[in-house]
């Protein structure tokens, strides 16, 4: 909720304290609050035009104080719900390719919450007009405009899934999100073929009880012949040095596995803590940089980079949970994820996962999730505790305090899954092995 490129507004500086007090003095049913001022936002959406370190285009507006009353210096605090800690915030990167604008928007609506931050990315295969249209749609949405938390990357990055450019792209996007806001806690990168299985109220509610340094990452140090076949080739990813997409370059020679550190394999999806992302991006410690250079010539390095950094770092190896909270089914024959279909629906919901992948575009399963899980109508954001309008209609057009969550049954499924993960300390025995 910080305006990038502008000096930090005053009401912002005490946010951690007001967050804390808002949690201690939280009222489940919001009452009218005394507002000192109301700012009408004019430019809510940033088209982040920078590839390098230059700061994104400036805006001179502030987020809607109705959504973030705790940021105000003068406010009335009501009686309390002492059991619930303050809700955290998630930074989402939502990315897709040519023809994915519709899916990206749908995923944005389905996973939207005013406390979160969203960065949308269409890779270079999509025409620039798609990017502009995406930004226009986002800009014309009154909710996104009020919350000022949805951004579109104006200059796209190449990201070849089979190469190493996705690591560079992911770190670039995370660094933009770090610059955009100082108050998110977890980083989640979603591809256009993913979808949430719980509401954001469910997810934020459950995450609010967890230590903010936890990382949810599938990983293994077991390197069988299959993994060896993937890890030994040397590649050069054109996405890292050519402005036009071309074929990946494979060297004829292969190399040995590293002995200076332990290699960990994993999956390309993960839920990473802000601390850890800053560790990777700031590079004060040399480990993330060394591994970045090593993985730049390794195929599919996004699956392996973060697990390897986490598990080789004394500072972070105890923060990793060997489960990424994503429901996905691997197709052994095609060596890729298989598309989920209606046969998988019950198992998927029962799994207690927070997200699932991968879905065909406009799969009827998505409509089912909207209906049964998210209570979302087509073209609208999934409602949450911040939506105060009449039920049935576009209830989120009347909004209240974004920090008021109304978790539903999804939070019970997710809680059960996480309690199982953490029970008996079994997660310790599965850490970095
Ligand atoms: C974390 O790293 C330290 C030091 O390298 C090591 O002693 C410890 O066993 C590691 N923990 C895990 C869970 O790998
Ligand atoms: C992640 O690990 C869990 C448990 O080890 C497993 O059930 C799940 O299928 C894995 N996810 C992926 C995407 O490999
Ligand atoms: C779903 O996919 C599985 C595996 O590909 C297949 O066996 C099953 O028949 C599919 N079900 C439907 C309803 O398409
Ligand atoms: C929703 O809005 C429409 C048109 O504004 C109206 O006809 C309808 O009665 C409303 N439904 C509810 C449940 O309020
Ligand atoms: C935890 O321990 C209890 C009993 O000691 C056992 O029934 C349960 O299955 C264990 N849970 C896990 C996840 O291992």
TrEMBL record:
Pfam short name (any one): Branch
Intracellular or extracellular location(s): Membrane
One GO CC term, this protein: membrane
Keywords: Glycoprotein, Glycosyltransferase, Membrane, Transferase, Transmembrane, Transmembrane helix
Protein name per the record: Beta-glucuronosyltransferase GlcAT14A
Lineage: superkingdom: Eukaryota
InterPro entries named among the record's database cross-references: GLCAT14A/B/C, Glyco_trans_14
Lineage: Eukaryota, Viridiplantae, Streptophyta, Embryophyta, Tracheophyta
Membrane-spanning ranges: 33-52
Single GO MF descriptor: glucuronosyltransferase activity
Naturally occurring in which organism (per UniProt): Vicia faba
Membrane topology: Single-pass type II membrane protein
UniProt cross-references to PANTHER family, sorted A to Z: CORE-2_I-BRANCHING BETA-1,6-N-ACETYLGLUCOSAMINYLTRANSFERASE FAMILY PROTEIN, GLYCOSYLTRANSFERASE
């Amino acid at each position: 909720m910080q305006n990038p490129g502008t000096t930090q507004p005053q009401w912002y500086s005490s946010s951690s304290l007001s967050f804390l007090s808002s949690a201690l003095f939280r009222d489940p049913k919001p009452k009218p609050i005394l507002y000192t001022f109301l700012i009408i936002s004019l430019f809510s959406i940033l088209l982040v035009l920078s590839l390098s370190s230059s700061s994104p285009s400036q805006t001179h507006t502030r987020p809607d104080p109705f959504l973030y009353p705790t940021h105000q210096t003068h406010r009335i605090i009501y009686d309390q719900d002492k059991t619930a800690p303050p809700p955290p915030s998630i930074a989402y990167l939502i990315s897709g390719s040519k023809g994915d604008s519709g899916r990206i928007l749908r995923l944005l609506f389905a996973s939207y919450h005013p406390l979160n931050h969203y960065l949308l990315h269409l890779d270079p295969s999509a025409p620039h007009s798609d990017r502009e249209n995406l930004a226009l749609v986002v800009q014309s949405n009154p909710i996104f405009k009020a919350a000022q938390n949805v951004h579109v990357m104006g200059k796209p990055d190449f990201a070849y899934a089979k190469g190493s450019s996705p690591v560079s792209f992911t770190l670039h996007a995370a660094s933009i999100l770090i610059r955009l806001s100082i108050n998110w806690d977890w980083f989640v990168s979603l591809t256009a073929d993913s979808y949430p299985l719980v509401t954001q109220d469910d997810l934020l509610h459950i995450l609010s009880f967890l230590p903010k340094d936890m990382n949810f990452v599938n990983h293994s140090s077991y390197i069988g012949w299959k993994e060896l076949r993937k890890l030994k080739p040397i590649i050069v990813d054109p996405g890292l040095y050519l402005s036009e997409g071309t074929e990946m370059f494979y060297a004829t020679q292969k190399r040995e596995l590293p002995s200076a550190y332990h290699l960990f394999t994993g999956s390309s999806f993960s839920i990473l803590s802000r601390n850890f992302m800053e560790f990777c991006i700031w590079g004060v410690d040399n480990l993330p940089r060394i591994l970045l250079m090593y993985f730049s010539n390794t195929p599919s390095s996004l699956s392996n980079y973060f697990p390897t950094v986490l598990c080789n770092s004394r500072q972070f190896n105890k923060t990793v949970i060997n489960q990424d909270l994503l429901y996905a089914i691997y197709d052994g024959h095609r060596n890729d994820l298989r598309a989920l279909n209606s046969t998988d629906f019950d198992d998927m919901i029962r799994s207690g996962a927070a997200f699932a992948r991968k879905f065909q575009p406009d799969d009827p399963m998505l409509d089912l999730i909207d209906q049964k899980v998210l209570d979302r109508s087509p073209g609208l954001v999934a409602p949450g505790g911040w939506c105060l309008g009449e039920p049935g209609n576009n209830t989120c057009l009347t909004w209240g305090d974004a920090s008021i969550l109304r978790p539903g049954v999804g939070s019970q499924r997710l809680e059960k899954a996480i309690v199982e993960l953490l029970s008996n300390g079994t997660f310790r025995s599965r850490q970095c092995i």
